[in-house]
């Protein structure tokens, strides 16, 4: 029986201690509210991570600190030895990369031990994106709300414009501080993964909506508990991931968009639409805050798919 499956009083206490040290509950919240994953998918990620935790605990590990690349590689090899298919090993690797990426992003680890971790090569799926017409449909739906009936409509519009206009992760959106805004210059400073800061341009429409929110709504929300954060909830405190996720999901449904949309979908759409418009790949990499350009290159495949569809629809021999 694994450490995370043990029963009994002291065993149950040990189990809770292990989950706390490995921050599995926080990881579950991250998957649900930042990544927007459904409960069955979250459960699968947690099961994969629990399998790793068992592997580490059986070898004397007590927390994720100090876990090295060689240990994780040995773990993946052990999965193959147990007869798991290459696709299952690749899924475990994906779960580990997401888990350790979460720990680094939250400041619990200084380095990601999964950066060089390899698994059986499989076809790479393309991220879901919204068309520009769908983006406009969502923004127009939010923008049309009456401030009398929906006092936070201007805040929500500013959130959407900033999320899509700068290609932010939801953690970056809710972490924005007023001091990070240079709206007269059309720029914002974003604190990304690993506390790396980058400067991202913001278009004129997004700047105007954000300025209006700061002028007309945020002062009413700010009750001296804002910590200087831009986007506040009804109680005047910084908006949480869960709160941002709920707001975004509600407006997407109201706009009649039936495809699955998460906050990250707007980041994918931002990158794809820039490349479709002819933006340089390195410039997009800089705006997204990707350390490795290979991460950004996935959007060139999305762009290629768009070009093929345009060719098919509009070329006389298509």
Description:
- This protein is mainly alpha-helical and 318 residues long.
- The chain folds into two domains: 3-105, no CATH class; 132-312, Intergrase catalytic core (hpI Integrase, Chain A), CATH 1.10.443.
- Helix content is 57%, strand content 4%.
- The protein has 15 helices and three strands.
- It has helices at residues 9-21, 24-33, 39-58, 69-81, 86-105, 132-143, 153-166, 170-175, 204-216, 218-221, 241-254, 263-276, 281-288, 293-296, 298-314, and strands spanning 181-182, 187-191, 197-201.
- The protein has a three-stranded antiparallel beta sheet with strand order 1-2-3.
- A hairpin with a 4-residue loop joins strand 1 and strand 2 (187-191).
- Helix 2 (24-33) packs parallel to helix 11, helix 3 (39-58) packs across helix 5 and helix 6 packs antiparallel against helix 7.
- The longest helix has 20 residues, at 39-58.
- The radius of gyration is 22 Å and the shape is globular.
- 31% of the residues are buried.
Fold blueprint:
Elements: H1 9-21, H2 24-33, H3 39-58, H4 69-81, H5 86-105, H6 132-143, H7 153-166, H8 170-175, E1 181-182, E2 187-191, E3 197-201, H9 204-216, H10 218-221, H11 241-254, H12 263-276, H13 281-288, H14 293-296, H15 298-314
Antiparallel strand pairs: 1-2, 2-3
Helix pairs in contact: 2-3, 2-11, 3-5, 6-7, 7-9, 7-12, 12-15
Question: What is the count of β-strands?
Answer: 3
Average pLDDT, rounded to a whole number, is 84
Query: What is the rounded Rg?
Result: 22 Å
Q: How is the CATH topology of the largest domain named?
A: hpI Integrase, Chain A
Write down the CATH class of the largest domain: Mainly Alpha
- Secondary-structure-derived class: mainly alpha
- Strand composition percent: under 5%
């Amino acid at each position: 029986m694994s450490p995370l499956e043990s029963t009994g009083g002291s065993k149950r206490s040990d189990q809770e201690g292990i989950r706390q040290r490995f921050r599995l509950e926080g990881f579950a919240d991250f998957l649900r509210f930042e990544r927007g994953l459904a409960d069955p998918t979250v459960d699968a990620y947690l099961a994969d991570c629990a399998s790793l935790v068992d592997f580490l605990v059986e070898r004397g590990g007590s927390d994720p600190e100090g876990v090295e690349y060689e240990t994780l590689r040995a773990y993946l090899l052990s999965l193959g030895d147990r007869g798991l298919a290459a696709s299952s090993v690749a899924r475990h690797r994906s779960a580990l990369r997401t888990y350790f990426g979460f720990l680094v992003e939250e400041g619990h680890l200084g380095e990601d031990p999964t950066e060089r971790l390899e698994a059986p090569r499989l076809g790479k799926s393309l991220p879901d994106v919204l068309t520009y017409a769908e983006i406009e449909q969502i923004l127009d739906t939010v923008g049309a709300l009456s401030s009398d009936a929906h006092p936070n409509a201007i805040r929500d519009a500013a959130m959407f414009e900033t999320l899509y206009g700068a290609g932010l992760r939801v953690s970056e959106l809710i972490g924005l501080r007023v001091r990070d805004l240079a709206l007269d210059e059309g720029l914002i400073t974003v604190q990304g993964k690993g506390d790396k800061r980058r400067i991202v341009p913001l278009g004129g429409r997004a700047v105007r909506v954000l300025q209006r929110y700061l002028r007309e709504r945020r002062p009413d929300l700010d009750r001296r508990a804002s910590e200087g954060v831009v986007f506040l909830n009804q109680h005047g405190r910084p908006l949480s991931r869960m709160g941002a996720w709920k707001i975004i999901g509600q407006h997407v449904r109201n706009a009649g968009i039936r495809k699955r949309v998460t906050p990250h979908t707007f980041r994918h759409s931002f990158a794809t639409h820039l490349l479709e418009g002819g933006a340089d790949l390195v410039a997009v990499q800089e705006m997204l805050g990707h350390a490795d350009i290979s991460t950004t290159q996935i959007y060139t495949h999305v762009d290629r798919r768009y070009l093929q569809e345009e060719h098919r629809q509009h070329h006389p021999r298509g």
